[in-house]
C-alpha cells in the first residue's frame, strides 16, 4: 500500500473518532445548577439610648371630696388646673427596629388648682353658701414604657406605646374660703404615692444615625391627690380630715432628643458562590 493511501486511511479514522466523541458529548444531559440560598442581610439594631425631654401639662381632676362634701348637700360647680411645665430624663433599649423600651423620670412643676361648690346652710342664713378652693399641685412621675416604632418614612418614624409606674402627687397651699360666712380653712402639705399609667403617641426624626428628635403626646393617669389635715382660723372649730382631689389625669405634649449608642446598624453576609454540577 502506498504511503499516500495509508495517510488517507489514518486521516479518515481520526475524523471518525472525533465525530463519535462529539456525538457522545451531545448525548450528555445539560448541566444541573444546584443553587445555594444566599443569606439575607442580617440587620442588628439593638442599642441603648438616652433621652431628655421637656413639655407642658394639661391636667384635669374628676372630683373633690371631704367629710362635709361626702355627707351630701354640696354641688360641685367647677374644678380646674392651670397648665405647668415638665422636664424629664430616660434610659432605654432598642430591642429591634420595631420595639424599644425605656425607663423615664420627670418632675412636673406646680400647677394652680381652683374649685367652687355651693351648699345650703340654714345656720348661716337664707340663700346659698359657697366654698372656693385653691391649692398647688406638683408631682414626680416614674414610668416603665414600651413602644412600637411603626416604620421609617424618609427619616420620620411614628410610634405608639404604653407605660406603667408610680406618681408622687404633692398638694400644698390648700385653702377653703366661704365668703358668705367669712370663714377660712387651710391644710398642710401632703404627698401621695399612687399607681400611674400612660398611653403614648408621637414620632421621631433622624437628625443623624445616632441622634433623633422626638415629639410626643401622652395621656397620663396620676391617681389621687390629698391635702394634710384641714384646720380653721377659729380654734373652736375643727380640725377636720383631709380633702381629696380624685382621679387626676393629664394630656401632655413633650419634645426632646434621643441618643443611641452601643449598637450595630447592619451586617450583611457575603453571597455564596453557586456551584454547577452534573448529575
Characterize the structure shown:
The strands form two sheets. An eight-stranded antiparallel beta barrel has the order 2-5-6-7-8-10-11-13. Strands 1-14 form a two-stranded antiparallel sheet. With 279 residues, the chain is mostly beta strands. It has helices at 3-27, 67-70; strands at 32-33, 47-57, 59-65, 74-81, 84-94, 99-120, 128-149, 156-178, 183-187, 190-206, 211-226, 230-232, 244-261, 276-277. It is built from two helices and 14 strands; from the N terminus they run αβββαβββββββββββ. It has one domain: Beta Barrel (Porin), CATH 2.40.160.20.
Concise account of the structure shown:
By secondary structure, this protein is mostly beta strands. The protein contains 2 helices and 14 strands, in the order αβββαβββββββββββ.
Helicity level: 10-25%
Order of helices and strands: HEEEHEEEEEEEEEEE
- Placed side by side, the strands forming the largest sheet appear as 2-5-6-7-8-10-11-13
Number of helical elements: 2
Strand tally, please? 14
Q: What's the CATH first level?
A: Mainly Beta
Tally of discrete structural domains: 1
Provide mean pLDDT, rounded.
84
Shape verdict? elongated
* Beta-strand residue percentage: over 45%
Q: Which architecture per CATH?
A: Beta Barrel
Distance between the termini: 48 Å
Query: According to CATH, what is the topology?
Result: Porin
Please tell me how large the radius of gyration is.
39 Å
Q: Could you list the spans in which at least 5 consecutive residues all have pLDDT below 50?
A: 269-274
Secondary structure class reads mainly beta
Largest sheet: 8 strands, antiparallel, barrel
Amino acid at each position: 500500500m502506498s504511503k499516500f493511501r495509508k495517510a488517507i486511511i489514518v486521516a479518515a479514522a481520526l475524523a471518525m473518532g472525533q465525530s463519535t466523541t462529539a456525538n457522545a458529548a451531545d448525548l450528555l444531559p445539560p448541566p444541573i445548577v444546584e443553587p445555594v440560598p444566599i443569606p439575607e442581610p442580617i440587620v442588628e439594631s439593638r442599642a441603648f439610648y438616652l433621652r431628655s425631654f421637656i413639655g407642658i401639662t394639661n391636667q384635669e381632676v374628676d372630683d373633690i371630696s371631704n367629710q362635709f362634701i361626702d355627707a351630701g348637700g354640696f354641688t360641685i360647680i367647677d374644678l380646674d388646673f392651670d397648665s405647668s411645665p415638665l422636664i424629664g430624663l430616660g434610659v432605654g433599649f432598642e430591642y429591634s427596629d420595631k420595639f424599644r423600651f425605656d425607663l423615664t423620670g420627670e418632675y412636673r412643676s406646680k400647677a394652680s388648682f381652683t374649685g367652687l361648690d355651693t351648699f345650703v346652710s340654714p345656720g348661716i342664713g337664707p340663700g346659698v353658701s359657697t366654698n372656693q378652693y385653691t391649692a398647688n399641685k406638683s408631682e414626680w412621675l416614674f414610668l416603665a414604657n414600651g413602644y412600637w416604632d411603626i416604620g421609617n418614612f424618609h427619616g420620620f418614624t411614628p410610634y405608639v406605646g404604653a407605660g406603667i409606674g408610680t406618681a408622687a402627687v404633692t398638694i400644698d397651699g390648700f385653702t377653703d374660703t366661704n365668703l358668705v360666712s367669712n370663714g377660712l380653712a387651710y391644710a398642710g402639705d401632703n404627698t401621695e404615692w399612687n399607681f400611674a399609667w400612660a398611653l403614648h403617641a408621637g414620632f421621631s426624626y433622624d437628625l443623624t444615625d445616632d441622634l433623633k428628635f422626638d415629639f410626643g403626646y401622652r395621656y397620663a393617669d396620676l391617681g389621687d391627690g390629698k391635702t394634710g389635715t384641714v384646720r380653721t382660723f377659729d380654734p373652736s372649730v375643727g380640725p377636720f380630715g383631709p380633702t381629696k382631689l380624685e382621679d387626676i389625669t393629664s394630656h401632655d405634649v413633650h419634645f426632646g432628643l434621643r441618643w443611641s449608642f452601643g449598637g450595630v446598624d447592619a451586617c450583611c453576609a457575603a453571597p455564596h458562590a453557586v456551584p454547577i454540577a452534573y448529575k
